[in-house]
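Thread: Newbie trying to understand structure tokens

Hi all, I'm a second-year student working on a class project, and my supervisor (Dr. K.) asked me to get a predicted structure for one chain before our next meeting. I've only ever worked with sequences, so writing a 3D structure as a token string is new to me. If someone could post the tokens and maybe explain what I'm looking at, I'd be very grateful. Here's the chain:
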Amino acid sequence: MDTTTGTAETAAAAITHATDDSFEREVLGDSGPVMVDFWAPWCGPCRAMGATLERIAPEMAGRVKIVKVDVDSNPKTASRYGIQAIPTLLFFEKGALIGTIPGAIPADPLKELLDLHSEGRLRERQ
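---
Reply by user tm_fold:
Sure, no problem. This is what the structure looks like when written as tokens:
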């Protein structure tokens, strides 16, 4: 197997795609830290953010659950959280929303936020 394919498969396995129907189970029902990326396939910054998440996701596996929600296919969930701009990142801890970041952010600051989130220290930062 070629390493490029293996990396893509690892990243895909480390990212969960949630729908209006599965959001409660995948995000709110999770007892650990979860980050949700609200995005759309036509959105350039969303695609860039998606590539960043694919690079970071394997490192975060078992530490922070990374979930993506396509706002076009899942408008109820986007509306529920007042998503008006994409990409928007929401951070959940034990099913409770603890932080929101609108817009794409570079890999290093995102990794730092995810590290804090995995340690239960994200609230201290905000």
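A couple of things are worth pointing out once you decode it. The chain has a mean pLDDT of 90. The chain is about 45% helix and 25% strand. Feel free to ask follow-ups in this thread.
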